[in-house]
Specification:
By secondary structure, the chain is mainly beta. The chain has helices at 12-21, 23-29; strands at residues 58-62, 73-78, 84-88, 94-95, 107-113, 116-117, 121-127, 132-135, 138-142. The strands form two sheets. Strands 2, 3, 5, 6, 7 and 8 form a six-stranded antiparallel β-sheet that branches. A hairpin with a 4-residue loop joins strand 7 and strand 8. The longest helix has 10 residues, at 12-21. The protein is globular.
């Protein structure tokens, strides 16, 4: 009977059945090693359950009369490390450039458009083993009149 060698990816049960038939012992006698038949427990590598997308704060910038401001610069600064991230609001007056790369320390966020500046707001980060979530997750910054 002509038997082919098992290919990579064949289940451990099938490999061990072949070994029980005797030909794997002959292969081992020739110096080849067939892994997976040592009756050791195996575990499969599951997928990474952590999010790969950075969590971000949704920041809206409005004028003194409440209109959304396009092109405002939003700057977030980590209060412990002094590292900053900046983003510009889109046509909807919103940016999501402030993300968890600034975590876990609190972050101070301001907006500017021309000579108008918003008061600073603060965001805290609640972190687990995978991600840090901003608290609050949304801010509205009002530019000075």
């Amino acid at each position: 009977m002509n038997r082919a060698l098992p290919r990579a990816g064949i289940g451990i049960t099938f490999q061990c059945m072949i070994r029980a038939c005797g030909w794997v012992g002959g292969l081992l006698g020739l110096g080849m090693l067939l892994s997976g038949c040592d009756d050791a427990p195996r575990m499969s590598r599951g997928h990474d359950e952590c999010e790969t997308t950075l969590m971000a704060v949704r920041v809206a910038v409005v004028s003194a009369d409440g209109a959304r401001v396009r092109g405002a610069t939003v700057t977030a600064t980590n209060v412990a490390s002094n590292i900053s991230i900046s983003g510009v609001t889109g046509s909807d007056g919103v940016t999501t450039a402030v993300n968890e790369t600034l975590a876990p320390s609190p972050v101070r966020i301001t907006a500017t458009a021309g000579s108008k500046v918003s008061p600073a707001s603060h965001v805290e980060w609640v972190c687990d083993t995978c991600n840090c979530v901003p608290e609050p997750s949304e801010l509205t910054l009002e530019l000075s009149p």
